[in-house]
Structure formats: C-alpha cells, structure tokens
Amino acid sequence: MDSTNTLREKQLIEKARRYLPGGSLGNVALDSQHDMIIQRGSGSRIWDVSGKSYIDYLMGSGPMILGHSHPSVVTAVHEAISLGSTFFANNQPSILLAEELVKALPCADKVRFTTSGTDATFQAMRISRAFRRRDKILKFEGGFHGTSDYALMSQEPRTLESFPISQASVAGIPGSIQDLVLIAPFNDSDTSTSIIEKYHDDLACVILEPMQRMLPPSPGFLKSLRDVTSHYEIPLIFDEVVTGFRLAYGGAQTLYGVTPDLTALGKIMGGGYPLGAICGRQEIMDMYDISKTSSSNHVSQIGTLNGNPIAATAGLATLAELRKEGTYEQLWSTGKQLRDSLDKFCLEAEIPARTSGEDPVFDLMFTLDPLTDYRSTLKANNQIKAVFRNLLQEEGIFQGPQKFYPSLAHDKKDISDTINAFANVIDKLAG
User: Fold this and answer.
1) What's this model's pTM, rounded to 2 decimal places?
2) In CA terms, which of 67, 149, 162, 286 is 20 to 30 Å from 343?
3) Residue that finishes a domain, picked among 322, 353, 369
4) Chain segment 72-83, per-residue pLDDT in tens
5) Cβ contacts of residue 295 below 8 Å, gap of 6+?
6) Ramachandran region of residue 88, left (φ > 0), alpha (ψ -120 to 50) or beta?
7) For residue 186, which of 220, 122, 231, 142 has the smallest C-alpha distance?
8) pLDDT tens by residue, 15-37
C-alpha cells in the first residue's frame, strides 16, 4: 500500500516528537519509516491522518473487542453524556456494572472500581497486604501488572537472577522494593510451590496473569498455586486485565477452572473508556469498608473518575453484546483461522516461528523452542519480529508490538485479506 504521509500527518508526527517524550504516548512507538497518526476507527479498521486504511489487530491494546465505534456502545455513551460526565458519587451505571461483574466472575463477591488496570493490580496487592498484615508479594518473572513499583520488578529483568531474587525493570524504583517482591518462574509448579512454602509467613499475596503474556498455563500449574495458597491462607490474585471477558465471559478463571481470591480487571470491561476494577472475596474486599474493619486496618481508595458513569455505561453496553449467543465461538474461530494460517505459512517457508497464546489473543514468536516461561521467550528473534510487523503494516495490517487481538468486527473479508497479507509477508521473509 502507499506509505506516503500527507503534509498534515508529517506535521503532526513532528509535533509529537517535539512535545511527547520519544514522540509517543508511551504505548506504541513506530519507527520513522512507518510512523503514523491515527485519526479514526470504525469496526475492524483504523484510518491515519493521510487517509490510509488498516485492518486493526491492536484494537486499542485489547479493549475494543466489539470493534471501533460499535453502534451499541456509541448510542449508550451519547445518552449517558447528556446526563452528566462524572459525579464522584454512586451512580446507576456503576452499580449495574458492579452487579454484572459479580455475576460474571466466579471469584467476585464485591467490586471496587479504578480507572486503569495498573491501579487495579496495585490496589489488589495493597488490600492483600492489609488483609494478611504481611508485606511481601510473590509475582512471576516476565509477568506484566502495569507500571507500579511492585509490578515492574522483574517484568523485563536486565539480568537473570536466581529465584526468588527480584530486580527493577525500569529506573526510579526504590531499592527497598527489591526486599518486598519475590520472583518465581511461570509454569514451574515445583519451584513456585517451594518458594511459597519457604516464605509463606511473609507473603501478603501471590499475583499472576493466568495466561502470562502469550504463555498459556501448563496443565495443573494454576491448580498447584491455588492449592498451596489456600493451604497457607495467602490471597491468590489473577491479573485478568488482558484475559477478562476475552478468553471467556467469566475470564481465564472460567476457561481454566481455577478461582482466585481477587481479580484485577481493565480493558474490555470499560468498553474503550478508562475503567478498571478489583473484584473478590467479601472478607478481603471488606477492608475497603470502614464499618467492617478497624480504622488502623482500613484501606482508603479514592479516585476522581472511579466508576464514572460514562465508562460504566460503555462497559455495560459492551458486556451486553458479549452475552449474545455465539459471541465467543466467533471470536475463537477468527483467532484460530489467523493462527492456523500463520503456522502453516511459516512451516511451508521453513521459517522458525509459531504462534503462541490462545485463539482470542496470540502472537507470532520467531522460535521453535518450547515456550513455557519468560526465559524461554528470550530465544525468540525479536529483530525479525519487528521486520514482520513493519511488512504487515505495508500490507495494510496493523498489529501492536506483542499481540494480535481478534475482534467480533473482523469479518470473513478481513480474515481473508489478513491471511493473504500473512502469505505475502512470510514469502518476503523467506526470500
């Protein structure tokens, strides 16, 4: 496709580089040859300021599971805006959304809203510390839980330390945090159980993505964590910001059949608007309720836009669409067709790559070695991956740096066009 940017888009790119650190919002940064400014989105597509159209598999990094500007969401939000943007108080949409989250998630007795997944995971860790009256957190190497100090320990470690030693993945994190975060290897039941058993009296909680990045859990792994944390009465937190309402209506905990004590949500539940939530067992969630806990052990949690009616309305409209018959069968089918084609083309071209993840969210990893934990993913060739992504963009397919997010808006033609683009790109890589 024509990669030429109009003068207006070039000017905006220069403004971005002038006023935004790194020329980006901190999320997706494109190289100079493929940089663009997105102007609008509708259904499965986005358009840049120069008018070029792309089939979108970034989908806002996951929340746009219905597609961009879905009519049901747009109509609901338009009506809600006329009633007021936010009140810093209880409102009907947030109460109804909380009710729906409790219905959907096996772990949920109560809900507390935030405005992001980062805040949801941070709050889940904090309320666990208050509940357990312990300070240490156990998380898994390579797991992503947002950008709080605790979450960024060993998220992308610069060196590979012996477990359970943690290290900061970015600058600006106090050195004292290292003593409060323990690290275990994902999908290693024996090592993880051993660490939990050794430090059980110091642990406030265990937090993980039930599918860590694009690594599905090995059979029995999640259950082993549930068993050992239950034995020592340590809260188990599932970070379902990515997997919630994507792998199943009840999230990964429904798909994999393991119920945590707390769940952090974001992305889909806000329908494309800023919203997150902590959901969980009543006795833990009651730490937010001053009438049910001592003042010294009460957790205060305040946010100007927490549970705002616009985001809650968008969330309700999105979840209503997801409850329709056949929704998840369609989503899984779309992902499977895309994955199968990629795996087939790579095999035929003798390119050492294969897809990883689950059908509703996956990626192409340029390695044939088994992928089970963070350290195994380091074998993947990310330089070729970047070339693959740029070639896709030239074919009119937009993908983020780590994942393909199929949506319900991707129709048969989108799938066919994407598969043809895959074939062209793999052919170029093979040549």
Assistant:
1) 0.96
2) 67
3) 322
4) 999 999 999 999
5) none
6) left
7) 142
8) 999 999 988 887 777 776 788 99
